[in-house]
Amino acid sequence: MSDPVIRVENLGKKYIIGHQKQQNYKTLRDAIAEKAISLKKQLLKPLGNNIDDRNRKEFWALTNVSFEIKQGEVVGIIGRNGAGKSTLLKILSRITEPTKGRIYIKGKVSSLLEVGTGFHPELTGIENIYLNGAILGMSKAEIKRKFDEIVAFAEVEKFLYTPVKYYSSGMYVRLAFAVAAHLQPEILLVDEVLAVGDIEFQKKCIGKMEKVAEEGRTVLVVSHSMSTVKALCSKAVLLEQGQVKAIGLVDCVIREYLNFNQADTAEKIVKDEDHLTGISKLRVQKIRLINSVSNLFRVYWQQPISISLDIEVFEQIEEVAFGAGIRTIDGTHVYTVHHDDNGTHQLWKFEPGEYSIEFTLENSLRPGLYKLHIGADQGHTSSKNICWLDIINVEILDHSENGEVPLQNNSGIVIGNSTWKAPKIFTG
Ligand SMILES: Nc1ncnc2c1ncn2[C@@H]1O[C@H](COP(=O)(O)OP(=O)(O)OP(=O)(O)O)[C@@H](O)[C@H]1O
Fold first, then answer.
1. Rounded distance, CA 408 to CA 344, Å?
2. Which atom of ligand 1 lies nearest, measured to the CA of 89?
3. What's the first-to-final CA gap in the chain, in angstroms?
4. Radius of gyration of the chain from its Cα atoms, rounded to whole angstroms
5. Which one of 19, 25, 27, 81 would you pick to mutate in the ligand 1 pocket, going by the greatest count of ligand atoms within 8 A of its CB?
6. What domains appear along the chain, each with residue ranges and CATH number?
C-alpha cells in the first residue's frame, strides 16, 4: 500500500446547461456509442456548432478537485445530492472528459456506475453477461471461466434466459455488480448501487469489495449510506458543491459530513449546554427563522435572513450589544454585525425578564451551508462576552425565489457587486 494508483490534479468539469435535452442516466454502452457519434459529427463538420448561445449556461459540477489514492485503499466518496460524486467517477472511468486538470490512473478500471449499466433490455441475462464482460474488457475465455461464479454471486440462475427488461431493479444490479466485481480489475469504481439490493445482497457486495481490496486492488465507492462507507472504507473524500471539503480517515470525514450536511429546523429550542460562553446573566431560549423555506433554517439565494430570538435575562445588565455572524462550515469567519452598527451607538439595557428580539441579515452569501453565530457582548471597548452560541446550520439555496441562479464564473464566499468604467472599449 504505497504508490498512488489514482492521482487527480485540479480537476474541473463544466457542463453547458439550458440547451441540452433532459437526459436520463447514460449507460456505459450509450456513452461509448454517443462518443463515437459525436466524433463522427466532429470529423464531418469540424467547424460546426449547433449550440444556441442565447440559452447557453455554464455550470461547474467539479472545481479544483485534487487528491491521491494509494493501491489497495478502499475509499468512500460522500456528499449531498449534486455534490459531484457521480461526475467524478464518470471522469475516472473515462466516460466523461474533464474540462480542466488531469487524472493519472495506473491499472485496469472496472466501473459500475448505476443500475443497469451497460445492459441491453432485449437481451437475456446470459447474453448481457457476455456483452458486459466484453465491454468491460474481458476476453470470451475469461468470461466463460468466470461465468458460473458470476451467476452464483448474482443469484439469477432461474432468469438467465429471460430478457433483462423483465428483471427487477434489484436483479439488474446484482448481475451488473457480479460482472464488474468478477472482472478482477485493478481499480473498482462503484456508484451508489448497493442501495438497490436487499440487505443480504448488500452484505454480500460489501464482502466482495473487501475481498477485492484484500487482493491489493483499489476500490472507490460512492454511497449515501454512512454505515456502508464506515463498514467498507478506511478513507473518505467529502465533496461539497463540486469541491473537496474533507479527505482523510473515514470516521473524521463522516463526522464532518453529518454535522454539517443539512440545515437545522426553522425553530430551535436552545439548551444551556448549547451556549459557548456563560449564561449567568442572559441566555437564549429559542431561535426562529421567520422567513424559512420548507420549515428549515433555509432561505433562497439573495433572500435576507430574518430571525427572532427569545431571551431570558437573569440580572440587570447595561451596555449590551447584540450581535450575529456567519462562518463557513469549515470555520472561516465571514462577518459579525452588532445591533448598534447603524451609527446610533445605542447599547441596550435589560432588567431581569423575558424578551423577544428580531433582526435581519442582508444576504449576499453564495449558495451553501453556513454556521450562524448569535450572542451578546457587554460594551464594545472591552468586548466582554455575555453569551454566544454557534449551533445553527443555515442553508442558502442555490436559486432565488424566482428561480435565478448565481453566475458560475466568479468565486468567493460572498457574491460581490461592482461597477466598471473604461475610457475606451477595445473589441475584437
Ligand atoms: N450531463 C449533465 N449536464 C448538465 N449538468 C449535469 C450533468 N450531469 C450532472 N450534472 C450536474 O452536475 C452536478 C453534479 O452531479 P452529480 O451527479 O455528479 O452529483 P452527485 O453528487 O453524484 O449527486 P447524487 O448524490 O444526487 O447522485 C449536479 O448539479 C447535476 O445536476
1. 38
2. 18
3. 54
4. 27
5. 81
6. 4-260 (3.40.50.300), 267-396 (2.70.50.60)
The amino acid at 204: K
Structural contact between residues 237 and 69, judged by C-beta atoms closer than 8 angstroms: no
Q: How many residues does the chain have?
A: 428
- pLDDT tens-digit series, residues 105-155: 998 787 777 655 567 888 999 998 888 778 767 788 888 888 998 898 888
Strand ranges inside 71-217, DSSP E: 74-78, 100-105, 109-112, 187-191
Question: 26: closest CA among 117, 123, 136?
Answer: 117
- Contact predicate 187/6, CB 8 Å: yes
Strands 368-378 and 348-350, by their bridges, are unpaired
Identity of the residue numbered 299: V
Report the complex ipTM: 0.97
Q: Which residues of the chain fall short of a pLDDT of 50?
A: 19-29, 32-33, 40, 43-51, 382
238 contacts 244 by C-beta, under 8 angstroms? yes
